[in-house]
Design a protein that fits this description.
Blueprint: E1 2-7, H1 13-21, E2 25-30, E3 34-36, E4 41-43, H2 46-51, E5 58-60, H3 67-75, E6 80-84, H4 92-95, E7 102-106, E8 114-115, H5 118-124, E9 129-136, E10 146-153, H6 159-183, E11 198-199, H7 215-224, E12 231-234, E13 240-249, E14 260-264, E15 267-271, E16 276-284, E17 290-291, H8 292-298
Parallel strand pairs: 1-2, 1-6, 2-5, 6-7, 8-11
Antiparallel strand pairs: 3-4, 7-9, 9-10, 12-13, 13-16, 14-15, 15-16, 16-17
Helix pairs in contact: 1-6, 5-7
Amino acid sequence: MRVTLLASAAFACPSLDALLSEGHEVALGTQPARPAGRGREPRMTDVASHAEAFGLEAAELQDINNPDGLAWLTGTQPDLVVVVAFGQKLGPAVRAAGPWGCINIHPSLLPRWRGAAPIQAAVMAGDECTGVCIIEVAERMDAGDVLAVSTTPVERKTAGDLLGELATEGARLLTQTIDQMASGELTRVRQDESAVTRAKKLVRDDGRVRWEQENREIDQRIRAVTPTPGAFALLEDGSSLRILVGEPVPCARGPLPGEIIQAGPEGIHVACGRGAYLISRLQRAGGKPMDAGAFLRGFSLAEGSRLGP
């Protein structure tokens, strides 16, 4: 099958691999290279860079919906258009470009968590399970019929852990869906609009730890924003402390939220609104990530001092 893949982020790389390994003829469109790094040199998207290993050139598309974008798309003569972490809204002409339609990989259990950051939203909300769906691309974002779904437990995973897991599972589900299309075995399930929840785009402040919360909620927040935008608290001198790894632990009532109960090689115990949180890996602003024991050998955190919100 001739598949035109519209993709940009690293989440889409397993899907490109899977399409090529299944023998599909793939044309790739992606976002333009953007300035990045200290030198602000143009850097191609993760998918474009990944495609170079296969000798596959990625077309850089300022807007897939404008005349140039549509001319490129129709020129690829797609049987099917697949969009994965592309970063542009698709108009009706794009959605109708291939006779087999236009489908998308979305990393949530739709209709729960439509929007920009569904994996992070599931972790932050404390969902026991999340997953990945193949959906038809519709006019409204993430509102199309569900063609396939796979579920995975959240457990103690970070958003970064789940991103990699769901990218791989989404790629498997994608090729399965294409096979079912070809065999006429595909089923479509309309989403229940009354069950829709929204996942907003995260900003830096979403990573700020609110110590007045229960330790379970704090743990969910930290895992949801790891690795990006990152969890942080403020030291008493106002500098930022990035929290990389930790876990909720019991604590008797008494210490104020944010108060350091104990600091030693096993980690830094911080009081929460209920319970405590044990920080086992962290990073000061401008410093390197390190385990708590190594951190405390070079920086003192006195018991009774407080971390700020």
